UniProtKB/TrEMBL annotation:
PANTHER family: GLUTATHIONE S-TRANSFERASE GSTA, GLUTATHIONE S-TRANSFERASE-RELATED. CDD domains: GST_N_family (cd00570). This is Putative GST-like protein YibF. InterPro entries: Glutathione-S-Trfase_C_sf (IPR036282), Glutathione_S-Trfase (IPR040079), Glutathione_S-Trfase_N (IPR004045), Thioredoxin-like_sf (IPR036249). Residues 2-82 form the GST N-terminal domain. Signal peptide: none annotated.
């Protein structure tokens, strides 16, 4: 059995973010699914995470919470073919900046809409839905401009691990508009990466969990 254990859910965006580097570098680990079908696993996350969230990585005595910290931990202790954090300090800052952008202004903003549907799928709070969808459109436009001047490397790295799941699900919540072709292309490129495709396939049986109804694509 591997020393590394990852607690997470196959349908969870932040779990994908942690799975991507593990898959890309072929790092051996045991996956513990927090789905209610596997009782006890989520209880562990509730115990070790201040908000009971997953993914959680256990590495021997070390418990690492938060997907970004998990990637930093893997980069430091399990380096592999995929350079998770750029060696150049300036590029590392950009990678960490984009990690924050995708988590805070794509993933978490889209989650506002998802939460509104979880609370009441028949009557989601319209202000919350509008805030989430407008926030996504604003972030898409920002990213479109950023991508005109910058490149997000299309290999598995901190930035792309944050970008892939957030753009995957954001597009289900509010489609990336025609005015943002660079963002649409980036999403397509990232979800075609083999570790991403594996996450997407393994999550397929859980698509009925998507509170807005999963679209018939991807
Ligand atoms: N900032 C956290 C966010 C983790 C997060 O929101 N995880 C979701 C699944 S994608 C979760 O635990 N949801 C269950 C809950 O909030 O109760 C990270 O980067 O790991």
């Amino acid at each position: 059995m591997s020393d590394l254990v990852l607690y997470g859910h196959p349908f969870s965006s932040y779990t994908w973010k942690a799975l991507m580097p593990l898959y890309a570098n072929g790092t051996p680990f045991e996956f513990r699914n927090v789905d209610p079908a596997f009782p006890g696993n989520w209880d562990f996350c509730r115990k070790v995470h201040p908000a009971g969230k997953f993914p959680v990585l256990v590495d021997g005595e070390a418990i690492v919470i938060e997907s970004t910290a998990i990637i930093e931990h893997l980069a430091a202790h399990y380096p592999g073919a995929a350079p998770l954090i750029p060696e150049d300090p300036g590029q590392a800052v950009v990678a960490r900046m984009m990690d924050r952008v995708f988590d805070r202004y794509v993933m978490d903003v889209g989650q506002l809409v998802v939460n509104a549907y979880i609370a009441d799928a028949a009557n989601p709070n319209p202000d919350q839905v509008a805030a989430g969808k407008n926030g996504l459109l604003h972030s898409y436009a920002w990213l479109e401009n950023w991508l005109a001047e910058n490149e997000l490397p299309a290999h598995v790295s901190l930035a792309s691990c944050a970008a892939m799941p957030s753009l995957f699900y954001a597009d289900w919540i509010e489609r990336i508009p025609d005015t943002c072709p660079r963002v649409r292309d980036l999403r397509a490129e990232l979800i075609a990466l083999p570790p991403a495709a594996r996450c997407i396939e393994d999550a397929r049986p859980y698509r009925h969990y998507f509170p807005l109804g999963a679209p018939d694509r991807d």
